[in-house]
Amino acid sequence: MKSIEIKGSLRTETGKKATRDLRKNNSVPCVLYGLNKDENGNQVATHFTVTNDGLRNLVYTPHIYVVDLNIDGKIVTAIMKDIQFHPVTDNILHVDFLQIDESNPIVMEVPVKLEGLAEGVKAGGKLALQVRKLKVKALYNLIPERLVVDVTNLGLGKTIKVGELNYEGLQILNAKEAVVCAVKLTRAARGAQAAAATGKK
User: In what order do the strands lie in the sheet with 133-138?
Assistant: First the structure.
């Protein structure tokens, strides 16, 4: 995965009024959940802010990143865990980050990329990507930027399911029966099939 640096500032106030003021000033309240835990077993949380512009390259992109969070000069390696948008304006309301290290596996959604010219497409079918991202669990340095699925041998009307995929070092968490991609029959392909069937008779 690529990395991206984001600069933030610690929050001194965390009430509703302070949060509203932050958003008015083009800042986004964020929380970093750390590796350490308190006496109740909860991850220690750090409250900080990032400007909207500072989050743009992380949020509005099809790529996934490891984030080098620079919070008042202290750098922590993390991933974006969750994000909330305003239901009307689509502005970023809140972002949660999760601190990571090389010894603990993490869960991330990774984009799927189809590769190759499917046999079913040659026969007149249409290739359809059903799942744009797959949820994987692995050490963060083993997670690729995208999961490449070879569709070269995918025939007309056939599918590739999650259970058929295998990537070294990765555990795919989606349901094994979930369809990742399919070559769908088009009208032209159905017509060709019908013509071929008629010709055989």
Answer: 147-150, 106-115, 133-138, 171-172
Identity of the amino acid at 26:
N
Give every CB contact of residue 144 below 8 A, 6+ residues apart in sequence: 1, 110, 167
pLDDT tens figures, 95-133: 999 999 888 899 999 999 999 999 999 988 999 999 999
3-state helix, strand, coil in the chain (%, to 5): 20, 45, 35
- Cβ-contact 4, 70 below 8 angstroms: no
Residue 188 has φ and ψ, to the nearest 5°, of -65, -40
Q: pTM to 2 decimals?
A: 0.79
Q: Measured in whole angstroms, how far is the alpha carbon of residue 30 from the centre of its chain?
A: 19
CA distance 16 to 21: 9
Helix or strand or coil: residue 141?
A: helix
Task: Give, as one character, the DSSP assignment of residue 162.
Answer: G
Pairing of strands 43-51, 92-99: unpaired
d(CA 109, CA 159): 21
Q: Running DSSP on this structure, what letter comes out for residue 185?
A: P
Are 120 and 156 contacting, i.e. CB atoms less than 8 angstroms apart? yes
Angle of CA points 124, 125, 127, to nearest 5°: 135
CA distances from 108 to 90, 123, 189 (A): 23, 36, 38
133-180, pLDDT tens digit by residue? Answer: 999 999 999 999 999 999 999 999 999 999 999 999 999 999 999 999
